[in-house]
Amino acid sequence: MEYKQLKEDACRYVDELKPLIYEIADKLHARPELGQEEFFASSLLKDILTDHGFTIDNPVADAFPTAFHGTLGKGPFQMGFLAEYDALPKIGHGCGHNLIAAMSIGAALAFAKAAGDKATVHVYGCPAEETVGSKVYMSEHGVFDALHAAVIVHPGVDKTYIGGTSYATHPLQFTFWGKSAHVADTEYHGINALDALVDFYARLKEYEKTLTERHIIGAIITEGGTAPNIVPDRAVLKATIRALTVDYLENKMLPDIKQMAQDVAAAHQASVEMVHYEPLYKNMINDPKMDVYFADAFNQLYEEFGLRSDDFAEGSTDVGNVSQVTRVSQPEICIGYGMSGHTSEFAAAAGSDLGKMQALTGAKAMAMVGLDVMGEEH
């Protein structure tokens, strides 16, 4: 069955929802909230969904009280729309999550009306993407397992893009422990934890040269002692360790690096403690067929776009974890020019007329893609 008419209906309904989509974008932009503190945003979105007939629950309330799961309909096709709404410290919506929420809500409502009794619509409120990544926890607890597909559109700059991937990342903190002593004490020399850490840092840089797949290792020393005349008994390094695939990260890089830290500590007669201070963000798998659907949708909406190669990656996202359990596509839609994300300029763009106009385009495209995926079985 050709779903052309249903997609036209969905786009027309997004246009009717323009005041609501703009309201979401404006209200969230004016009241930015940090991850796990998004009580206003979560409440606003839940109220809107409830007003449109959705049933709301929170399957991860114990870990993320500002998360939610809204459902509408009882059709066999299970379609997910991912909403994000956390902001950045001091900058506000410098990643445009106010627009993500507006697009996903608008798309879900439009898709639901067009799909009718053929689908069950799921809207997931996903807090703290910028920090601990609620979608990591949600994926681990099976929240997305029943979906046939999920969509999200992320604001971007200079051009709209489809495709690409993201880095798998697992931030790791290393704390080296030694023994304190006065540097001039002739009898008690102590064990210099900073020496062990610096040795580890040097070996880490050399190790990086041996890696055969694309990766990122960034590291900073956050603690190196308290006074120059005291042998440091504690030294701390924080690292972001990333690879294009979770397999290479988890089965090659991390075991090697952890063993290296243990070896260095033993060589210095020190000890080391390792803690993953943020959860594992898995690499993004954009579904190729859904990418084609987005290309068709953007063409129909007269939105110029570029295509990214499968190995193009700029950062990390917890949407990658969702893409490991169900089909997902996450394009970027242009909301401004000559800037980068996580800046005050991007935050301004996220509140601009162009940003909100593009949110309408993004919502239409998501609804259209959902209908395309639903139509595969008919």
TrEMBL record:
InterPro entries: Amidohydrolase (IPR017439), Bact_exopeptidase_dim_dom (IPR036264), Peptidase_M20 (IPR002933), Peptidase_M20/M20A_hydrolases (IPR052030), Peptidase_M20_dimer (IPR011650), Xaa-Arg_dipeptidase (IPR017144). Residues 175-263 form the Peptidase M20 dimerisation domain. Belongs to the peptidase M20A family. Signal peptide: none annotated. It holds the Pfam family M20_dimer. It comes from Megasphaera massiliensis. This is Peptidase M20 domain-containing protein 2.
